[in-house]
Amino acid sequence: LGNASVSLLDLAGAYASLARGGVAWKxxxxxxxxxxxxxxxxxxxxxxxTDMLADNSxxxxxxxxxxxxxxx
Length: 72
Fold this sequence. Notes:
The chain has three helices and two strands; from the N terminus they run H-E-E-H-H. By secondary structure, the chain is mostly helical. The chain has helices at residues 8-19, 43-53, 60-63, and strands spanning 23-25, 37-39.
């Protein structure tokens, strides 16, 4: 996935951390697994990255005007 050797589980965890404001959870693969969390990025940094990812005009040149990434 992408250019780096990142597993799908790690990539999903990174996006989930953005959604949680910088708090990462260790993957819970079974219901009995304990959820452990830690802050990996500041909430302010998450807000900046999320804003960049949500900027449809920034993706215009690469993906076109009506790409599947255009959500609003």
